[in-house]
Specification:
Blueprint: E1 2-6, H1 10-21, E2 25-29, H2 33-40, H3 51-60, E3 64-67, H4 70-75, E4 79-82, H5 97-108, E5 114-118, H6 126-137, H7 140-143, E6 148-152, H8 162-167, E7 172-175, H9 179-189, E8 196-199, H10 201-232, H11 236-244, H12 265-278, H13 284-308, E9 315-319, H14 334-344, E10 348-352, H15 357-363, E11 368-369, H16 373-377, E12 382-385, H17 397-403, E13 408-411, H18 418-423, E14 427-429
Parallel strand pairs: 1-2, 1-4, 2-3, 4-5, 5-6, 7-8, 9-10, 9-12, 10-11, 12-13, 13-14
Bound molecules: uridine-5'-diphosphate-glucuronic acid.
Length: 437
């Protein structure tokens, strides 16, 4: 099939590369000329395991190409995916200017039947607005001549494992209002051999919001449980394991820690709370989820403070900056917020992340960015684990103990066994499992 993806951000690029890998002819279009020039040279703007290989292979085999000529890309495709950014406005709503502009451009360049698919995470009813926008912007001469459909096909891929999530999804959701749209999308996704849920556009839009919100609720739930574990002396890791074995609950997304970050959950929750409010529902459950998430970062700062007494001039080493492992994405990363809070109290920060050091340079003034774990730990009063990268899971504890000023580890992701840490001579402070008192 001839496909155009508009927007070469995370979702757009992965979708484009993977759809090409399934044998389609894909054009990834973006009006950011610098980005497109880089992509043409196979310079991938994000770190995502496996993505570069898929892009290179499909570009070489001429199934994938990049262009900044969005109009031309619209003309040559039958299926057009909208994957432009939908950032948060100050009031929590999603900014849909990009989506509206793309819809207008599609209308002005219509030259045959088009199926327009929303892939960006958008509020419910965006599909209707896209349809309306295209209809009113279609030049009169084209109105009777060209038909089009709008569909919603939300993306559920996770950063860090996006290729695998795309190729092996738990389900695919398509929201359609016509048989043509339905059949085209069923045909497109047939090679993936998974359950495809076909529904109306609004339900598809809400499935995306509800799924992300539910996962965020799950994380905040276990974080709230971790507070009770801490005050009673229970271990939240064991509690999560015990709960998770119940098939109705499941173990995934029950890792207590410093809370969720990234470009999706925080933004999507804000947007869903706002949409619900607009529709007359005060979504208190999601507001509480957000509050618990914010409080986890403050909790970590308090734990560090309790361990070090005063923070002023204390040297703190932070391991991990990205919002989760296997990505260089620092958007709404808990580590960044925690570092800022520590700096505000006068602490001196050193930090190391396996992938995001270049990005960190611009957003972490005053932080000494180190070349590895051991440079970060040297002469530090305390080491904070903020992202559970695999390479932080087997640290040389003996070597660390020798070079740190005080052997204190604050583990914001619970990747160590508290007993093992105590036996190694460390004061170990985790989340919901501290072996103290
Ligand atoms: C999330 C969803 O998982 C995807 O299904 C969705 O497609 C995507 O948002 C999106 O809307 O685009 P992502 O933001 O890449 O994916 O990352 P997740 O793996 O979901 O993790 C989000 C945050 O939750 C991370 O900061 C992670 O550290 C945190 N988390 C996750 C926990 O604190 N505890 C857990 O048990 C699981």
């Amino acid at each position: 099939m001839n496909i155009t993806i508009i927007g070469t951000g995370y979702v757009g690029l992965v979708t484009g590369a993977c759809l090409a890998d399934l044998g389609n002819k894909v054009t990834c279009a973006d009006n950011d000329k610098t980005k497109i020039a880089a992509l043409k040279k196979m310079i991938i703007p994000i770190y995502e395991p496996g993505l570069e290989d898929v892009v290179r292979r499909n570009a070489r085999e001429k199934r994938l190409n990049f262009t900044s000529d969005v109009k031309e890309a619209i003309k040559k495709a039958e299926i057009i995916f909208i994957a432009v950014g939908t950032p948060s406005l100050d009031n929590g709503e999603a900014d849909l200017t990009g989506v509206e502009n793309v819809a207008k451009t599609i209308a002005q360049n219509m030259n045959g039947y088009k199926l327009i698919v929303e892939k960006s995470t958008v509020p419910v009813e965006t599909g209707s607005w896209v349809e309306h926008t295209i209809r009113v912007n279609l030049p009169k001469s084209k109105k009777a001549k060209f038909k089009f459909d709008v569909a919603s096909n939300p993306e559920f891929l996770r950063e860090g494992q996006a290729i695998n999530d795309f190729m092996n999804p738990d389900r695919i959701v398509i929201g359609v209002e016509s048989e043509t749209a339905k059949n085209l999308l069923l045909e497109l996704y047939r090679p993936l051999n998974t359950t495809i849920i076909v529904t109306d556009i609004k339900s598809a839009e809400i499935i995306k919001h509800a799924s992300n919100s539910f996962l965020a609720v799950k994380i905040s739930f276990i974080n709230a449980i971790s507070r009770v574990c801490e005050s009673t002396g229970a271990d939240v890791v064991k509690v999560a394991e015990g709960m998770g074995l119940d098939k109705r609950i499941g173990r995934a997304f029950l890792d207590a820690g410093i809370g969720y970050g990234g470009s999706c959950f925080p933004k999507d929750l804000d947007a869903f709370i706002t949409i619900a409010k607009k529709n007359g529902y005060d979504f208190q459950l999601l507001k509480a989820t957000r509050d618990v998430n914010d409080s986890q970062k403050k909790l970590l700062v308090k734990k560090i403070k309790d361990a070090l007494w005063l923070l002023k001039d204390k040297q703190i080493g932070v391991l991990g900056l990205s919002f989760k492992p296997n990505t260089d994405d620092l958007r709404s990363a808990p580590a960044i917020e925690i570092i800022k809070q520590l700096q505000a109290e006068g602490a001196k920060i050193k930090a190391f992340d396996p992938q995001s050091m270049d990005k960190a340079k611009n957003i972490l003034p005053g932080v000494k960015l180190c070349k590895d774990v051991y440079e970060t730990a040297r002469n530090s009063d305390c080491l904070v684990i903020a992202t559970e990268w695999n390479e932080f899971k087997k640290l040389d504890l003996r070597a660390l103990k020798k070079i740190m000023l005080q052997p204190i580890i604050v583990d914001g992701r619970n990747i160590y066994d508290p007993k093992e840490m105590l036996n190694s001579g460390f004061r170990y402070i985790g989340i919901g499992r501290t072996l103290e008192k």
